[in-house]
Design a protein that fits this description.
The chain is α+β, with helices and mostly antiparallel strands. It has one domain. Helix 1 packs across helix 3. The longest helix has 17 residues.
Length: 80
């Protein structure tokens, strides 16, 4: 997957705000979702490795979380 073109993103203290000017919608991502979105061009396993290292969780749990966030971000139209 990759980030949808044309989105505007701004880092905030504990995450990311994304604005879609075409839909006139804003999204607030927590830190974990922000990491997934920012690394969307990587394979799921690579994203999971980043999450596992950052949050000190097992690889299986990190992969499950990465897949869930990727699916959610795709459903919101933030990833294509």
């Amino acid at each position: 997957m990759k980030r949808k073109d044309g989105l505007l993103a701004q880092r905030i203290e504990d995450g990311l705000i994304i604005y879609d000017p075409v839909r006139d919608e804003s999204y607030v991502l927590n830190e974990t979702a922000a990491l997934v979105w920012e690394n969307a061009e990587l394979r799921e396993e690579e994203i999971a490795a980043i999450l596992a290292e950052r949050y000190d969780v097992g690889k299986d749990e990190a992969l499950e979380d990465a897949r869930a966030f990727i699916q959610e971000l795709g459903e919101k139209g933030l990833l294509v």
